Amino acid sequence: MSYSVGQVAGFAGVTVRTLHHYDEIGLLVPSERTYAGHRRYGDTDLDRLQQILFYRELGFPLDEVAALLDDPDADPRTHLRRQYDLLSARIEKLQKMAAAVEHALEARTMGIDLTPEERFEVFGDKDPERYAEEAEQRWGGTEAYAESRRRAATYTKEDWKRIQAEVDDWGERYAALVAAGERPVGEAAMDLAEEHRRHIGRYYFEVPYEMHRCFAEMYVSDERFKAFYDAMRPGLAEHLREAILANADRHTAS
């Protein structure tokens, strides 16, 4: 029995793009290909993917995951014990910050007309109202706040699920880019920074490049924003900051 890349993506809850990336870097090379060159994954490939995702969930970078799976002398228990010590020191703090990952400035917390059950379905254990009062105090008099509140009030549960899915997909792609060692001033990183800017504009309010530069600084200076992005991949907040600034420069240069 073998499976297509789309089927495996569905099984594992990852994107097809992620599987393509794992193939390209040699982390998960499918054991079969069709005559047309399409990837086909067997049970052994699925076992390896499960191990990859397990270590990724623990925070291991892709190069260490490869070492664990391919080096016959590597002892996974040693790596796990070391990672456990690191994670234990951060767990309590990260748990407290998890509810803050919703972007107050982007006003996702404003005007969400969902039942408590629907909110949990869409946002998981993150409370989308937790920072609503703070957001209103800081930005309540701005046009961006008013526009974001107006738009958010019209969204249905399905709309929020689609928005969340786009955020998750973008995060996976950006994390893969950082893992691959792409520079923040490279075209790929700047393109994802531009996609980030347009996502806010599509669902919340228009974001001129100068405003996006301000966001970039806030993503590293505000611990809640930094925790949100670094949860996707350690160091991602700083990387995104540089990519946003570079992207703004390339679009506003005279």
TrEMBL record:
Task: List, alphabetically, the InterPro entries matched.
Answer: DNA-bd_dom_put_sf, MerR-type_HTH_dom, MerR_fam, TipA-like_antibiotic-bd, TipAS_dom
Tell me a Gene Ontology molecular-function term this record carries: DNA-binding transcription factor activity
Q: Which PROSITE patterns match?
A: HTH_MERR_1 (PS00552), HTH_MERR_2 (PS50937)
Q: What is this protein called?
A: MerR family transcriptional regulator
What keyword terms does UniProt attach to this protein?
Answer: Activator, Coiled coil, DNA-binding, Transcription, Transcription regulation
Q: Which residues form a coiled coil?
A: 77-104
- Annotated HTH merR-type domain ranges read 1-71
